[in-house]
Amino acid sequence: VLSKNIFKSFICTHTQFRFGPGDTVNALSDDGTSSAISLLRPFVFFGRTYNTIYVNNNGHLTFDQPWYSYIPYQFPTSGGRDIIAPFWTDLDNRNNGVISYKQYSSGSVLTQATQNINQYFPQLQFTATSVLVATWDRIAYYPVSV
Ligand SMILES: [Ca+2]
């Protein structure tokens, strides 16, 4: 999932980007969320500019406020909130898995992101200047019974 903006930063979910040292980890909570994350660069999503994002435990990211919804709805939506929803379902990290995120402004993650975007969208001539990697790793579906 990606969206390009005029500042040439993007948000992407891809298996090549792995969580690790330096990631911020979400608290254990069935329908929890991250704290407000100040983006390294403004992010334009369908014409709206955002400086803050939330990594929500139920598999989505929202911009203006955290969100706890665990029942996905069909896209495209009319009205409604802006959302990036790579894994939207009723996830529950209370007993298993890690939900985490990290922002990058230099290094191999930006190089990899730049290569990926240009591979899939060669007409963009894209150069990543910031990347947010959000990871839902080995999260179980609600209810967790173990
Ligand atoms: Ca949940």
TrEMBL record:
What residue range is the signal peptide?
none
Indicate the segments forming the NIDO domain, all copies.
Answer: 86-146
Q: Give the Pfam families listed for this entry.
A: NIDO
Record's InterPro entries? Answer: Alpha-tectorin, NIDO_dom
GO biological process terms on file: cell-matrix adhesion
**What's the protein name?**
NIDO domain-containing protein
Q: Which organism is it from?
A: Pygocentrus nattereri (Red-bellied piranha)
